[in-house]
Amino acid sequence: MVWIYLFAAGILEVVWAYAMKLSEGFTRPWPTTITIAAMIASFSLLSIAMRSLPLGTAYAIWTGIGAVGAFLVGIAVLGEELTLMRVLGVALITSGLVVLKL
Description:
The protein is mainly α. The relative contact order is 0.16. The radius of gyration is 14 Å and the shape is flat. It has helices at 2-22, 29-49, 55-76, 84-101. Helix content is 80%, strand content 0%. The chain starts with a helix and ends with a helix.
């Protein structure tokens, strides 16, 4: 169950990052509200996961899910550029997460 909490926390990190982008510097009320709510939920789930998981593992996986997820949202939704170097960077992040899990 702890891994589900951690995964959900990571997904919520992607949500708040995307909503923050849409908030245009916290000038738009709804994206700002979503950002804050998703941050609170993400941190809460992360703190629950950290009751059982080591700090380094939980935090690295949480930020990794957020980084890779934000990368994918940027490509798929925001039309950001997909380059070989960016893909390589995400592959390195993902391989690091797999090693931490093992």
